[in-house]
Amino acid sequence: MRRFASRSFGFEREVRSSLTAVDLSNRENSGQPDVLSLISEKLETLVTTADLNQISSKYKAITAFFPYAVWQSKTLDAFLLAVRTSKRHGFMWRCIRPLIATLLNKESHVSLKQAVILASPHLRWRDFPNSKELVKLLAAAASAIPYTEEVGMSVVDTLLQIASNDSLRSSIPLDMWSWLNERPSLPAACWGRYLGSRQNVVRSIRRLEDVETLKSFLLLVWSEWDGLYSEGLQEMSFSIQLELGKPEMWHHREDLLRHLDHILGQLDIGTEHLRQRDPDVNESDIQRRKDQYETLREVLLEVEMEATEILTRKPLRLAVPFHLLIPMDRHEVQLDIYVCNSSPVSIAAYPGYS
Domain ranges in the chain? Predict the structure, then answer.
């Protein structure tokens, strides 16, 4: 504990003056109150009673508290609550980055790795162009800790932020992208979701050539809480047309259409719902998001129509040999043919059927 305290010594005065009157330098005194608990209470009070600007004004002190917070789950919860509540993204992480690398070390305890994973969405990854080794440490630590919804949320949020940094994207291990398939419930305020809609991120996902990962990515990034980068929107449309146009992709298109209908329904509620996250959101912002998600819905419907036309052509030619489809897809193809054709054609006559 002392080695972490010594590295953050320059911030202790800020911690004392901003968060608590307790003397942090005398923790071993038996008569001393539980310093971490007292600071945690101060943080919780600060979050519940202060406005966002006041919390942001204490970002130095809150960041300096991180080396102490990793030792107790209750204390870490208070720290994360303060960081998440603040409008300021990117606390004084640069000053304690060596600590983060130490905590992610292979020999570090699982609980310490988990603490960094939970805090990782709040690092300003776009300002860390030389953190390739840190990305690899983070990926290794993520695979070494037990999965929870909160861990999944933090890893996905962080992954998308890292992917939005052109200098760091290539450092992401290939297997780390599989975290997208966990589809954790991302919070309303989520930098990874917004930054993840950049064109180069979408393109990187498509180049994985994994339809399930592409769908998971779109389900995570599309949300009423955020709009999309315009170039990313175009790349998403292209990816849908290129990767989801085959008839056997009907269930992926169905999932995406259902999700878009939910988003558009939430946007129709109006500004009050969305101001839970962003008090400054206005009707213009909402209309822009509606336009973007309506565009994606139209693309999906167009692809769906083209896929239906493929199924109803005479003679019918499947996009893939019939015998390569899984049983569920075979069943659906036969149903589609029976429903869509006035004179049903025997499936046994199709090329590749056996």
Answer: 216-312, 313-354
